[in-house]
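Bench log. Compound arrived from synthesis this morning; before running ITC I wanted a structural hypothesis for how adenosine-5'-triphosphate sits in the protein. Inputs:
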Amino acid sequence: MTTITLPAYAKLNLTLDILGRRADGYHDLCMVMQSISLHDDVTVTLTDADSIVCRCGMLPGDDSNLAVKAAKAFFTETGIVPRGLLIDIEKRIPMQAGMAGGSTDAAAVMHALRALLAPELTTQKLEAIGAQVGSDVPYCVRGGTVLAERRGEKLTTLNAAPRFRVVVCKPDFSISTPVLFNHSDSVALLDHPDTDGMLHAIEERDVLGISARVFNVFEQVLTDEQTEVFDIKDQLITLGASATAMTGSGSAVFGLFTESGQAQLAFHNLRQHYQQTYLAEFI
Ligand code: ATP
């Protein structure tokens, strides 16, 4: 086998809490993450060249691409002799959305390289390599319903959450992650998610309990220019969502639905105003 294509799934934050700032400048986080069916397609092909070529839509395929970083980290950390690679990424996940689009491509590249070159490597080892590529990469390697702590590298797999339908809508503006973290350091964060309650609700597969605890601490520090996030949340609730939140550092907003007909209606409604609107489900 010299080529493999894998789906690279997007993630949502069902909860996002900031526990504090660390001495190394990063933040200690506590997040319940969920994979959804919206995905990029990542094809990795072994070639006879002595370089890595990456084609990724409009994005540069150089070392700034997380997929390339992941391939290089894979070879360095496993000691496997580097191979020529062609990495083709068909992007569907919106960028700068808080959906880990780059991190999930990186994770898919590592899964592909394991399948092609080192099937004996453990997932734990892949996650450890992923932690060097980006904070969200270990989670993307694992996927599913997961509690992510510290910078995001301490992972605990949870029972699979019930299969909510999801409508994701990304407004035209993006939000800078470092600016958002700085802003959250400078104000008192009054509200925090009930993470323990969320973990219990997931354990019990309690749809209402999960919906009641969807919460992102970053929503408290959005600026007046970013209030469209709340407009979209309001629209999703009016259209029948059982819960809404911004995911990660935004700017995408999602609504959870228990009825697929309602989710479809909400998708078509929001799509009229927002080009980057997606219909998906938990996986
Ligand atoms: P996160 O939820 O991890 O914060 P995000 O959705 O906010 O992710 P991404 O879209 O994953 O952000 O990527 C942010 C930046 O990373 C992009 O602006 C892009 O320049 C860079 N990047 C590098 N590699 C990729 C990739 N393969 N796909 C998307 N973005 C990438």
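What the model suggests: The radius of gyration is 19 Å. DSSP finds nine helices and eleven strands in the chain.
ITC booked for Thursday regardless.
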